[in-house]
Amino acid sequence: PTSWLWSFGDTSAYSTLQNPSHIYTSAGIHPVFLVVSNGLCSDTIMGSIDVLNDCSVIGTIAAFQPDVDTIILSSNAYNHFTNYSVNATTYFWDFGDGSTSQQVNPTHVFLTPGTYIVTLIACNYNCCDTLTYNIVVLQTPAGVSAEENFPSLNIFPNPNDGHFNIEVSVTGEVSVDLRLIDYSGKTIYIDQLKQASFSPVSIYIPNLTVGIYLLKIQGCNFIETRKIIIQK
Prior knowledge:
Blueprint: E1 3-7, E2 28-37, E3 42-51, H1 55-58, E4 64-66, E5 70-72, E6 78-83, E7 90-94, E8 100-101, E9 107-109, E10 114-124, E11 127-138, E12 152-156, E13 163-169, E14 176-181, E15 187-193, E16 201-204, E17 211-218, E18 223-230
């Protein structure tokens, strides 16, 4: 051949060098074409280059938060999952009941009581991370009769930077204890809310590192545990 034409399978320009070098800037399988010619005859060959991310640099993290940890089928079977994954481009959800999804923020309907392990696999091509979360599905609130009021608890915003609000309403409670626990099991914040039915109470816990924590709220007649995501 007397001429060469290269296509590198990305958005870069063609090359007419005989032996070119090329820098790839995105992960994936890139088809490479070479067309050679001598002015009368030509021939083409195709290959592929598999470009991998450096997982130690890209830092893919799977993270998500369900709307609720416990679902009561008699009132609502839906659960929405908010995806907070970092540096991921594709997602695979397994809801533990034979159902899956590839949506970013799926909503799932659980049909029967049980404990389901919800799994999220977040990937950026070859770099993946996995997170699991247990969802308890009950027909009716455990240990609560129809006449009793089930605790109402709202935490917002979530994620937050350590400054968030709590709304709680529980019949018969005069105070509730609040504990923030990190994932090693260490209690890093303790407080007591002196009334069990109130407008939003502002909580500020400074100097928290980025990550997922457990917020445990306990009264005489109930215990609720919610996940809180700290982002800066």
